[in-house]
Design a protein that fits this description.
disordered C terminus, eight-stranded mixed beta barrel, 29 helices, rod-shaped, alpha/beta, five-stranded antiparallel beta sheet
């Protein structure tokens, strides 16, 4: 070691040594960065970067050697052989190229060490080739131990430098440059310590000191130019890479550029974000297989799955065109992965987080096949599911039940309590029915208050059990606001293939059975029978004809007289709607009024009846009242008071001559709103009569809450008044109640003089019935002279039975 230091201190020009060291360090610094750039590329680019690295390394090696040689004091004149000197430069560049290519080949974990050893040998070969071209005037001898030591140092340190250069650590390039410079300097000065000269005076052309200084400066300048070229290339490429990296960082997609050999050449930070990878787990220069294995470790994939994914990537890279697929990860993320092969080999992999888009698509798809209010499948979903179930039944020789469901009180709740209450009812019932479903069962909402259930026969439970569970769910009370409401439902059942051979017929037959159940108050469930088609078709036809009846003037209003018990004085008339059908004849209200309520026509019809009755009464030129019945739906209409006022104004009828009749059950459906509506009507001067008293709630609280102008005793009591002491006692109690409230009592359904006599004895105020007069048209009443005489004489009139 002291010999080497002595050689540096005693036999070298210190300025030349410093210049050589600067050239060596600068060239090594540039070489380390070019080598790193070569390691992060592939293909032709990698070869180019390796060559530039070798040039920078070769220039650093050769220039360091020659500048130091020019500063060496041999104690005798010197000269240089130009051929060997030039050859030494080529050896440095060629050997470095081979070593760098081997180090970055990825052939194994020891490839950097092997490549570094080759570069170290190139340094040694360059040095001693240059020494062969070093001419001195004297005898040259070599110390073999120093010579071997110099070669070992060169090979060892160069191998270590390239191994460090392959590390990911940010300081690796600086450490590599320092070790590589040490390899060059240690070889040179150790090798020079092995060099001995015995001066002799020999003839020849020898260089002087000035020439050597000029040559050293020229060589240093050449080194600076060559190294600067490498620096410029590095900086230009670094600028391009920085701009590209910035663009990649700003991209929402993850980008990975894979070389033909399966090495990552470029990637952006988005890749780390998407997969939660550390920088060391996805980096430039990493094999694609290792990169995917790191992703698999994060996602919990087993080795077999990782292997299949790696194979798939190489398969995509080999196929023409863009390959695109989506992968669902366990954390809920959905990635769209695209592989775009590049001409000449390799591919660009892109990763797009489409979780939000797919979530939105699923929501849209769910909305397309599900009811937004209840969450149940809709009509479109039912059609699709029914096709599948029928296909299953045909393939397996199975049977399928279709159950049509129509709620009984939804329209009433919706009209009387508001849409919010109706929606709440639908949601509760949907939840109940959904909770009953087992494998093979299905239920969908197909209309406002219509549902259809599908049930495979022969499953774990019998059809009757399933229907019974549906019935229990639909008839269990629901709490709406401050009261319990029993929804109720009508269900029709049709079976495939027993009752139908196709989907449309199956649905139609279940619908027919459901309408049969709806028209029969004694049963909630009805199974399809071939004979019911005609009756249901007639009912549907009647409903359709009802829509045309109002426009075609088929409705009539008949009037039934109301008189006092004492003297038979006329108090007024009740307006009763009749439908004179062109082919069916006179259709009873009990047939078409429920249809009008179901089809939503009752408001239009009720408005027509009220206007017609008021106009008729206004034309009589008498003080008699006209009584008009209201339906529950009319009472729930918030515009009812305004409509009544408008009709009175249009017809010219005095408000005190109009009496509106309604039942107690209509008020109980929505007590507060009903009473508020009635108070508004009563404020107009219109009378309010409580109809059918004694058959509903008969609540004394109702009579206290609202001051009715009249109480109408239901006709059902009249049939038993002559024979039943209980019926007579009830009538007597009601009459007493009316007197205590100062409210007139009108008894309906009077058909015999005996009934009238009993009522007269008990003190009833007013009566109405066939004994006094049947409902008649306006013309009939005018012709009878009732309006003129003002009283009805019932003495001796024969008893007539009600139609």
């Amino acid at each position: 070691m002291m010999t080497v230091l002595g050689c540096i201190v005693d036999q070298h020009n210190h300025w030349f040594v410093l210049l050589a060291a600067l050239v060596c360090l600068g060239g090594s610094w540039v070489m380390a960065r070019l080598f790193h750039r070569a390691a992060t590329t592939d293909g032709v680019q990698r070869v180019g970067w390796h060559f530039m690295t070798a040039v920078a390394a070769g220039v650093a090696i050769w220039c360091t050697h020659f500048i130091a040689m020019l500063g060496f004091s041999a104690g005798t004149p010197i000269a240089f052989d130009p051929l060997l000197t030039g050859l030494s430069l080529l050896i440095a560049i060629a050997g470095s190229t081979a070593g760098f290519v081997l180090a970055g080949s990825g052939l194994g974990r020891f490839a950097p060490l092997g490549g570094g050893a080759v570069v170290g040998l190139a340094i040694a070969c360059m040095h001693y080739t240059g020494m062969l071209g070093y001419r001195v005037s004297g005898l040259v001898s070599w110390d073999v131990s120093f010579l071997v030591t110099s070669v070992v140092l060169s090979v060892t340190l160069a191998a270590l430098a390239l191994q460090v250069g392959m590390l990911i650590h940010p300081f690796a390039r600086n450490v590599m440059a320092g070790i590589f410079a040490l390899a060059i300097i240690s070889l040179h000065f150790t090798g020079m310590a092995a060099f001995h000269v015995e001066p002799l005076v020999l003839p020849g052309n020898w260089a002087n000191g000035g020439e050597l200084t000029a040559l050293a400066l020229a060589i240093a300048g050449m080194a600076v130019l060559l190294v600067s070229g490498g620096v410029a290339s590095y900086l230009i490429d670094d600028r391009v890479r920085s701009e590209a990296a910035e663009a990649l960082r700003n991209m929402s997609s993850g980008i990975v550029w894979v070389s033909p050999t399966g090495t990552i050449r470029l990637l952006n930070e988005r890749v780390h974000e998407l997969f939660g990878l550390d920088p060391a787990e996805a980096r430039i220069g990493m094999p694609l297989a290792q990169y995917i294995a790191n992703i698999g470790a994060r996602c919990g994939w087993d080795d077999e799955l990782v292997r299949r994914i790696v194979d798939a990537h190489f398969l995509w890279m080999a196929e023409p065109g863009v390959t695109r697929l989506e992968h669902d990860f366990d954390n809920g993320m959905v990635l769209a992965i695209s592989c775009c092969p590049i001409a000449g080999g390799g591919a660009i992999l892109t990763y797009d987080d489409v979780t939000e888009a797919r979530t939105s698509e699923r929501k849209i798809a769910h909305m397309a096949f599900h009811d937004t209010l209840t969450g149940l499948p809709n009509r479109a979903a039912l059609s699709k599911r029914l096709d599948e179930e029928i296909e299953w039944a045909r393939a397996s020789n199975g049977r399928l039940a279709l159950i049509g469901i129509d709620l009984d009180r939804f329209k009433e709740v919706n009209d009387l309590r508001g849409h919010a209450a109706g929606d709440q009812m639908l949601k509760v019932l949907a939840q109940r029915m959904g909770g009953l479903l087992q494998e093979g069962d299905f239920v969908a909402r197909v209309g406002g208050d219509e549902f259809i259930a599908v049930h495979r026969l022969g499953g774990q439970r019998h059809l009757l059990e399933f229907v019974a569970q549906l019935e229990a769910a639909l008839f269990a009370a629901i709490q709406l606001e401050d009261s319990d409401v029993v929804p109720g439902a009508s269900m029709g059942v049709a079976i495939f293939p027993d009752d139908a051979a196709d989907k449309e017929t199956l649905i139609g037959n279940a619908d027919l059975a459901m309408y049969r159940a709806k028209s029969d108050a004694t049963q909630a469930v009805c199974f399809y029978e071939p004979g019911m088609d005609e009756k249901v078709r007639n009912r549907r036809a009647l409903a359709q004809e009802l829509r045309d009846a109002l426009q075609n003037g088929q409705f009539e209003v008949h009037y039934q007289v109301q008189t006092t018990v004492e003297g038979g004085h006329i108090r007024g008339y009740e307006a009763l709607l009749r439908w004179r059908h062109p082919t069916r004849g006179l259709v009873q209200p009990s047939e078409f009024i429920p249809l009008a309520e179901e089809n939503g026509m009752i408001l239009q019809i009720g408005r027509w009846v009220l206007r017609h009755a008021c106009a008729t009464a206004a034309s009589w030129h008498t003080h008699y009242k006209i009584a008009v019945n209201l339906s529950a739906i009319q009472l729930a209409d918030p515009d009812l008071p305004q409509m009544v006022a408008q009709i009175l104004d249009e017809t010219g009828l005095a408000a005190e001559r109009l009496e509106l009749e309604l039942t107690e059950s209509m008020i109980f459906a929505d007590r507060e709103r009903s009473l508020a509506t009635l108070r508004q009507i009563k404020a107009l001067g219109v009378s309010i009569a409580l109809d059918d008293f004694g058959t509903g709630y008969s609540s004394l609280d109702m009579l206290r809450a609202f001051p009715f102008d009249k109480i109408k005793l239901d006709r059902s009591f009249m049939a038993q008044i002559e024979t039943s002491a209980e019926a007579k006692a009830i009538i007597r109690a009601v009459l007493a109640l009316g007197k205590s409230l100062n409210t007139p009592i009108l008894a309906e359904g009077i058909e015999t003089t005996d009934q009238l006599t009993v009522l007269r004895t008990e003190g009833c105020d007013e009566v109405q019935g066939f004994l006094l007069g049947r409902p008649a048209t306006r013309e009939t009443i005018l012709d009878s002279g009732q309006l003129t005489h003002g009283r009805i004489d019932v003495t001796g009139q024969p008893r007539e039975e009600a139609a």
